[in-house]
Specification:
The structure is a homodimer of 370-residue chains. Chain A has helices spanning 2-7, 14-21, 25-33, 40-53, 58-66, 82-97, 111-123, 142-149, 173-186, 207-214, 219-234, 251-262, 276-288, 306-310, 322-337; strands at residues 71-76, 101-106, 128-131, 154-157, 168-171, 192-195, 270-273, 298-302, 316-319, 346-349, 352-354. Chain A has a 6-stranded parallel beta sheet with strand order 2-1-3-4-5-10, with helices on both faces. The first copy, chain A, has a 5-stranded mixed beta sheet with strand order 6-7-8-9-11, sandwiched between helices. Chain A has 3 domains: 2-66, 434 Repressor (Amino-terminal Domain) (Orthogonal Bundle), CATH 1.10.260; 71-171 and 322-351, 3-Layer(aba) Sandwich (Rossmann fold), CATH 3.40.50; 173-320, Rossmann fold. Chain A has 370 residues and is of the alpha/beta class. Chain A is elongated and about 80 Å long. In chain A, α13 (276-288) links the parallel β7 (270-273) and β8 (298-302). The longest helix of chain A is centred in the first third of the chain and has 16 residues, at 82-97.
Chain lengths: 370, 370
């Protein structure tokens, strides 16, 4: 066993140090991480055990020799999105309670900025990184795997990257979208617009083409679209490509797409919006068409906000557990920094469905061009 | 002159280095800052001049010996406020164009977190700091002056601190609030609620007591209240303390305060809201009272958003130049990092008044308890 260890030595875990010192794992983690209270006697035992086993995490090396870091780096795609602002709040609450500060970089959904952001955080010697990556399905993510290889733990947030062997904290996007579309269908709707789908300049006229486009999308957007399609399938409603927006994702394009869908010979009678800007864009189109919700068209959107509650009528919305997402991502990362091993890779948190007054049955058939 | 210099030596400026090297100030700044293009010949001349004069900025020391930092730190009170998210975008756009990355910390309006945040940024060796301080009028700001004393340039954002000798980039809060109140008055209103004023548990029954409370408030909040009072004074309307909210600043308290003001024997007929949460809180109270805007009560709020434009009717709002605020603060800080001297301390940018449909004349006198 000792010989094995010499040949392919792997660093001892925090649990092995704890066992050697005869203390609990949490106490060992606290001492080695340099945060929280540890009695001098306990501290001495843990440090002696760590030295005997050759334990050296980054955190230990930093806190004991090259200076304490105690900082988490967070990379979000767009800090202007209230969703990410809420998640960052959750991360910093949990980090702070465990003695870590949080620094944030925003990439504006650009992969080049994301690569630069990782460089900055590694350069600033953060102890770990939480990232909501701007990478689409087709993009290489060497900058993320390279960071892990350099010994900086990474947790993925909001957007899983399926071929990576990393812990991911996400919401039940697919289930939430399915439930929203299902509510429309239960109310009698069969022409349901989806704002927004995958941005693509390729023609999307079949389910197969849609699926191909989706595989090059953000993971979370793809999941929401799949949930929408699940609900249609369950109800035996055939997919109509004209009802899924494939333009670039901006509020203005959402307005144009919804206006177009409201003007079809068989117009949409319900709209599922996958972002705040998609929702406000859709509302602009509804108003500009001289229509009213929910009588002429029903609406459900991601993500809930104070504004959605004070609209008249108030909007039925999907609320993602932003704080909890942030809390969980920070916990997983901090446990890993403390030397724990990740066992569960995918952590899926439940969204809340907030029913207000923007969903009713479809209007009687109306002729749009009298 | 040389003797004078020896006795009280002050570091040479970037302009002196440029003159010595016979190059433009921008070229010298680029070379010494280590960003952008400089030909080898130009670079050599600038560095020789810098050495001769003993020029050593932090940026130079870092880029030439201890490694390049090229990072700005930004401390905002609440990254969940879309206003700050927009400002951060402006900061990072300008920084990026000049070769700097931006890292952000959010303090949740808590001074202790702000002090910790400054410690983190100094520890991470940022080249300068932009801060929207959570300090109230009564708070000591040694953590800010101490940072400047250690040679890290600081620019104040959104909230001036009047006794500090630092560049501040703010909006015309007082003028914007005055203009909003004036529009109400021009439409015939005389009972105008202000949500929110200074949070205080002291009784506020006189103008003097209000003024005392305001001096312990955030600078920007105080300015908005002063603008509201300016408009009342100009119109000869006497101040009524019952029309200024002094509870802690939350959406829920805004709802309670507006409900109370709508229920006064002489109720308010217009509401000026100084934050997004104040605006949504006010709208909840209006709806709960069975009233409609603008027919029963007129509304104007800070800050504009997509949601305000899709409300029915759309809201008249004040839009602060968020991107421009961020751009300007970054420019000033980067110029200072490059060795420039600040001459102008207060930079006040203009807000935009966006008139939509939430302001009309006051309703005919109504009996609120029939």
């Amino acid at each position: 066993m000792a010989a094995d260890r010499d040949r392919s030595w792997s660093p001892p875990t925090i649990s092995e140090v704890a066992a050697e010192a005869g203390v609990g794992r949490a106490s060992a983690a606290r001492t080695l991480g340099g945060y929280g209270y540890a009695s001098p006697e306990l501290r001495d035992r843990v440090l002696a055990a760590a030295e005997k086993l050759g334990y050296r995490t980054n955190a230990l090396a930093r806190s004991m020799s090259t200076g304490i870091s105690h900082t988490l780096g967070v990379i979000v795609a767009d800090i202007g999105n209230p969703f990410f602002a809420g998640v960052v709040r959750g991360i910093s609450d949990t980090s702070r309670a465990r003695g870590f500060d949080t620094i944030v970089l925003s990439t504006h959904e650009e992969l080049d900025e994301e690569k630069a952001a990782i460089g900055v955080l590694v350069d600033k010697r953060v102890d770990g990184i939480i990232i909501a990556s701007a990478a689409l399905g087709r993009d290489a993510v060497d900058h993320i795997t390279g960071t892990v290889d350099r010994g900086v733990p990474v947790v993925l947030l909001d957007r899983a990257i399926e071929h990576l062997n990393l812990a991911s904290v996400v919401t039940d996007n697919r289930e939430a979208a399915r439930r929203a579309a299902e509510l429309f269908i239960q109310n009698g709707h069969r022409r349901i617009g989806f704002i927004w789908g995958p941005a693509t300049t390729e023609p999307v006229t079949t389910r197969r083409e849609l699926s191909a486009a989706t595989s090059n999308n953000l993971w979370s957007d793809g999941e929401r679209l799949r949930g929408y399609l699940d609900a249609l399938d369950d109800a035996g409603i055939s997919f109509d490509p004209a009802l899924v927006m494939t333009e670039e994702k901006t509020e203005e394009n959402a307005t144009h797409s919804v206006a177009r869908m409201l003007d079809l010979p068989a117009p949409i009678t319900a709209i599922l919006c996958s972002e705040t800007d998609a929702t406000t864009g859709a509302l602009r189109a509804v108003r500009a068409s001289g229509l009213r919700y929910p009588d002429d068209v029903s609406i459900i959107g991601f993500d809930d906000s104070s504004w959605a509650a004070v609209m008249d009528p108030p909007l039925t919305m999907i609320e993602q557990p932003m704080l909890e997402l942030g809390n969980r991502a920070a916990e997983i990362l901090l446990d890993e920094i403390d030397g724990g091993n990740q066992t569960q890779l995918m952590h899926t948190l439940e969204s809340r469905f907030i029913e207000r007054s923007s969903v009713t049955g479809p209007p009687p058939l109306r002729s749009r061009n009298p």
